[in-house]
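Forwarding these from the shared drive since the link keeps breaking.
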Amino acid sequence: MNLGDALSRLPGFSHAVLVVPDERGYPLSVATSFRVVDGTVEVTPASTGPSAVRDTVEARLVVSHIRPYPGVGYDQRRYIELSGTLSVGGSAWRFNPQGARGWDEQDLSFPELCQRALPQARRYLANLSTERGRPVTPQMSAGWRFFLATRLPFLTATIVPVFLGLAAAAYDRHFSLGLAALTLAGAMAVHLGLNVANDIFDTLSGVDAANLTPTKFSGGSRVLQYGLVSLRQMMALAAVFYAVAIVIGLVLVGISGLGLLWLGVAGVLISYFYTAPPLRLVHRGLGELCVALGFGPIMVLGAYFVQTGHYALRPLILSIPVAILVMLILYANEVPDRFADAKTGKRTLVVRMQPAAVIRGYVGAVAVAYLVVIAGVVFGVLPWPTLISLLTIPLAYQTWKGLSAHYDSPYQLMSYLGKNVNLHLLTGLLLVFGVLLGILVRR
C-alpha cells in the first residue's frame, strides 16, 4: 500500500492509535481522533495527552477495523499503519506521514495474505536460526504432520469405489472379509502415495509456490511450503506407501490370479506419473481422465476381481458414476488453482477452457453420471434400488450454482467444493447401499 492510497482510505476510519517511543525507548500508545489536512494528519489525543509524548521522528499512526461474529470469527478486517514524524503542540498534534503499509480484506483475503507472507516468515526463521546457532523450524506433532501431508480425509475417494466393487461381488454371491480388508489397504496405500508424490512434484515444478489462494480442498497439503516436513521426508513417505501398495498387490495377484496384475500395474503407473516427469499427465490436460480411471473402473473392477476371480459388466457400469464424480472433485478444485497452474505450465482442463465452458462441462458430466445409473436399471444391469443414488441431485444442483456464482472467489467457493466432495461420497455410498439392498430384494 502506497502513501497516497493510505491517506485516501484514512477517512474511512473513526479513531487512531498513535505509537511513539517514551523517554526510555519503550512504545507508548495514545488513543486519538484525527483528520487529514493537505497530506498531513492532525491527531487529537482522547485526553489531554501524556506528558511523555514529545516531538519524534519515529511515530506510528495505526487505524483498524474488524466486525466480530461471536463464536464464529471476524470479517471486514482492515488496517493502515503510517510511519512518520510527530510535532507536539496545542490540542492538535501534527503527524507528517512518510511511509505506509496496510491490508484490507476486501482487496486481499486473509488466507492469501498469509501465503504472501511466507517468504518473510522463512527469512525470519533463517535469521533466528543463525542467531541461535541451531535450526529453528515450525513445530507440530508428528500425528498432525502425517495427517496434513497425506491428506487423509480424501481417502473417501478410495473407500467408495472399493466398497462398490465389494458390494457388486457380494451381489454375485462372492465375499471374503480378509480379501476385502487387504484390497482396501492396498488401494489406500496407492492413494496416499499419490497424494504425497503429487505434493513433491508440484513443489519441484513450482506449482504450489505460485499458488497464493490454496483452500482446504485445493493447492496441496502445503506442508513443504510451511516447512513442517522436509522434501526428503516426503520422498521417503511416498516410497513407503508405494512399496506397501505393490507388496499387497502382488499378494492379491497370487491369491486371485494374473488377471489382476495388469489392472494393478496400470493403477500404480497412473498414480505416479500423474504429476511425475517425464509424463506429468495432469500437466497435459489428462489429469481428469487419470483420476476417473484410477478411482473408478480400476478400483471397482479390482475389488470385484479379488473376490470373484473375473471381471463383469455390472461392476464396470457401477464404476462409471463414481468415476465421473471423483473426476469432478479434481475438476472443480482446479478452478481456484487455475492461475498458478497456468503460470507454471500445468495445463489442466480448467486452464484450457473458458469459465462458461468449465461450468457447462460440470453440468454435462453430472448429468451423464445420473443417466448411467438410470440406464443401468432400465437395461437390467443394475438392481433397481440403486436409483436411490438420485437423491443427491439437489447437492449437485447446489454445487453447480455455487461454482457459477463464485468462480472467481476461491474462499467463497470453498464451501461448494466441500459439497462437491460430499456429492461423490454420498452418491457412491447410496450406490453401495442400493446394490446391497438389491441382494435383499432379490431374495
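-- next protein --
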Amino acid sequence: MTEKEEIIRELKRKGLKGKIREIKEFFSLVRRNRVAFIGIILLTAIISMALFAPYIAPYNPYTRTGEPLEPSSWRHPLGTNDVGQDILSELIYGARISLAVGLISAISSVLIGMVVGTISGYMGGMMDEALMRIVDLFMVIPSLLLVIFLAVVLKGTWLGDHMFLLIITAITLTSWPTVARVVRSIILSLKKRPFVESIRALGASDLYIMIKYLLPYTSPILLAETLLRTASNIIMEASLSFLGLGDVTQKSWGMMLHYAFSRQAMVLGLWNWVIPPGIMISLSVLSLLLVGQALEIYINPRIS
C-alpha cells in the first residue's frame, strides 16, 4: 500500500469513528437535557400522526360526514366545518401537508446552500465574489411577494395549478442564501487546515476534498439548519395558506385557519375550528426548535 493510500485510509477510519462518537454524544446530551427530550417526544408524535393519518383519523377529511358546523360530540370530537367535514380528521391529515412543505423546502434550501457555500468558500477569488452577489440578490426577495408573483406569472401552467409545489419553490428560493453564507464561513476556516493541505499535496482533486473531507464537518450545523428552517417554513406555509395562497385541494393547518376565518368562525364562537390548528402549528414549531436548540448546544457547548 502506498503512502497516499495509507493516509487516506487512516483519515476515513478516524472520520467513521468520529461520526459514531458524535451520534453517541448527542443522544447522551438529549438524555440529560429534559427540554430536548420533550422536543423529540413531541416531534416523534407529530410525525407519527402524519405518517399514520389514514389509520388514526376517524373519517376521510374530504368527505362530508355530518351536518355543517356541528358542535363537539362523541361522533365528532372537534365538531364539523361549514360543509360537514370532520375537523379532527382535517387536523390529523393537515400534519402531512404542513410538515411536508416545511421539510421539503428546508431540505431543498439546505442542499442548495450547501453546494453554493462549499464551492464559494473553497474556490475563492472571482467564483466566490460572483456566488456571493447572487446570494445577496436572493436574500432581499420576500417569500410572500415571490409566491404572488409566481402565481400570477405561472397561472394556467402545470406548476401554477399546483400551489403545493409553488409554495415549496418560493420558500426554497428565498431561504437557501443564509445557509450558503453559514457553510461558506465554515469551509473558509477548514480549507487551510494541515490535513486538507496534506490531502491536496497527495494529488486529491478539489471535488474529492470538498465531498469527502470538508462537507462532513458541516453536517451537524446543516442538520440544525434543516430543523430550524423546517420550523420557520411551517409558519410560512401557514401564513401563505391563511392569506388564501395555499393549495385549496389539500388539507393543511394553514388552510383550516383560512376557511375558519373566511367563514367568520371567531364571530360565531366556533373556537373548536380555530384553536386546534393553531395549537398544532405551535407544537410543531416548538418541538423543532427544542431539538434544534439541543443540536446547537452540542455543536457549541458555550451557549448552554
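Residues 16 and 240 are 42 Å apart (CA to CA). The chain has one domain: 3-303.

- D.
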